[in-house]
Design brief:
With about 230 residues, this protein is an alpha/beta fold. The protein has helices at about 30, 35-40, 50-65, 85-90, 140-145, 160-175, 190-205, 215-220; strands at about 5, 10, 20-25, 70-75, 100, 105, 125-130, 150-160, 175-185, 210. The strands form three sheets. It has a six-stranded parallel beta sheet, sandwiched between helices. A two-stranded antiparallel sheet has the order 1-2. Strands 5-6 form a two-stranded antiparallel ribbon. The two termini are about 15 Å apart. This is Cysteine hydrolase.
Length: about 230
Amino acid sequence: MVLISALPYDYELPTSDGLALLIIDMQRDFLEPGGFGDALGNDVSRLQAIVPILRELLSAFRARNLPIFYTVEGHKPDLSDCPPSKLHRGQGKLRIGDVASMGRILILGEPGNEIIPELSPLPGETVIPKPGKGAFYHTNLESLLREKKITHLLVTGVTTEVCVQTTMREANDRGYECLLVEDATESYFPDFQQSTLEMIRAQGGIVGWTAPAANIFQALEKWKPREKLGIRS
Ligand code: C5J
């Protein structure tokens, strides 16, 4: 049994393949000036802090040929998948679909919707466009996870209390064992990030576990799933 030292207690890695890395919305819209995060009045530079750790997690997963899923939040150019409540929410100068310095805000295929170049997906890694905050809402994420027999998700990305937390709750309700990587998720609001970590692991891990990336790297060194040992059940 290989355990990741985590809160509220150790997180057990699966004995078979079944572990995936989920990277939520590390797109220019949220991390660079001129995108959606900026239009909402946030200091987008805060989110850059997690990029080096995410690169290390990506390397560790790629080196072991483990599945990686990315999401991007975005809408169709005709906005047919954007409910009026989302379109009209807030009182910012710019709204979803308006033209800004990285193209139309939060629209699929626009430059602002791209994953930041430091974390660019490689061929074979799956990018899931999502119209909502949760990655299971109106996407094929669940069927892809089932197809690959994924049971355990290491969850990362931005922003901790919005898309990351929503996705983690959706995954938890669907039976996935989720661990949120503490230093691979970030928010525009440090207090919200801290509160989210605490909410997730409260009440015996009511939504899941949290752990720093260092603990994951340590455990991965020891982890040899049955398939990797050539054992099929
Ligand atoms: C937000 C996200 N914050 N990816 N999206 O609107 O968290």
